[in-house]
Design goal:
Strand 1 and strand 2 form a beta hairpin. The protein has six helices and two strands; from the N terminus they run αααααββα. The protein is 62% helix and 3% strand. Strands 1-2 form a two-stranded antiparallel sheet.
């Protein structure tokens, strides 16, 4: 019996057969270019160098020389980081996040410790088949949602406007540094 590609079935079971299958079934050829930005081009041709003959892209040295504009831009960012406005934004962030994380982690550790050391307490029924462990577990989810809501509200009311103003000022200063480029 013959297959649709005019070869007998079972003939050519070696690498030639699999190469023929790829060619016959529309697999991409080696000459095909992938324009997908997420495609890992180094994995397309196993065993071949990056880009099939093209040189590696240049990676700037961490200790390399910087031009005057880059040095001045760095100074702008350091100046903004040391400013009172930036310190106030960071302080507001820390004053919310540190206590929030401490409270949530304490609540989580208390739940885990209670579940492991006091199983009879956690198994105590509250209403019907619902016990203390179920209520505490649902409380973990509720606490997560409440903390997320409180964080976004705090950020919107207390930090976002000041951070946006800082970002705008920083971009203006670095734009002036580059000589009004863009």
């Amino acid at each position: 019996m013959q297959s649709s590609d005019d070869r007998a079935r079972g003939a050519g079971d070696g690498p030639e057969r699999s190469a023929g299958n790829r060619r016959d079934h529309g697999a991409p050829s080696r000459a095909a270019r992938h324009e997908d930005p997420w495609c890992d081009s180094s994995a397309l041709d196993w065993g071949e160098p990056y880009g099939a003959g093209s040189p590696h892209p240049a990676v700037p040295s961490a200790r390399g020389e910087m031009d005057a504009a880059a040095v001045h831009a760095r100074e702008v960012y350091v100046e903004v980081q040391r400013s009172a406005a930036f310190q106030e934004v960071r302080g507001r962030y820390r004053r919310f996040v540190v206590p929030g994380v401490a409270v949530f982690l304490s609540w989580y550790v208390a739940y885990v410790v209670a579940a492991t050391t006091a199983p009879e307490l956690m198994a105590r029924p509250v209403v019907g088949a619902v016990n203390v462990a179920m209520l505490a577990g649902l409380g973990q989810f509720l606490t997560t949602f409440l903390l997320t809501w409180a964080y976004t509200r705090h950020a919107r009311l207390r930090r976002d406007r000041a951070a946006l103003e800082l970002r705008w000022e920083t971009q203006e200063l670095t734009r002036e540094t580059r000589g009004g480029a863009q």
